[in-house]
Design brief:
Blueprint (H helix, E strand, L loop, with lengths): L1 H24 L3 H8 L4 H28 L16
């Protein structure tokens, strides 16, 4: 019984890590594709997870944009207008 609980816990942790990796790189599109192949309550669950993955992906993208603002210049450089 304890092996089963341990295995279930490990499987849950692995699935959570895979979900976070997929949501960071792809958003909810990959999860939604898998969910479209299923039916019923499983399809609703996959679409809910895809929505959460989209939220995670957007939040991380916004954070990257916010952190990269000091390194971006607002003015465009003119390459032809160089001083010797």
């Amino acid at each position: 019984m304890f092996k089963f609980i341990r295995n279930l816990g490990c499987l849950t942790i692995i699935l959570l890590i895979v979900f976070l990796i997929v949501s960071l790189f792809f958003g909810g599109s990959k999860i939604r594709e898998i969910g479209d192949r299923t039916t019923g309550i499983v399809k609703k669950t996959f679409h809910y997870a895809a929505k959460k993955a989209d939220e995670i992906h957007d939040a991380v993208k916004e954070k990257f944009e916010e952190m990269s603002k000091p390194f971006k210049s607002d003015e465009k450089r003119d390459i032809k207008d160089k001083k010797p």
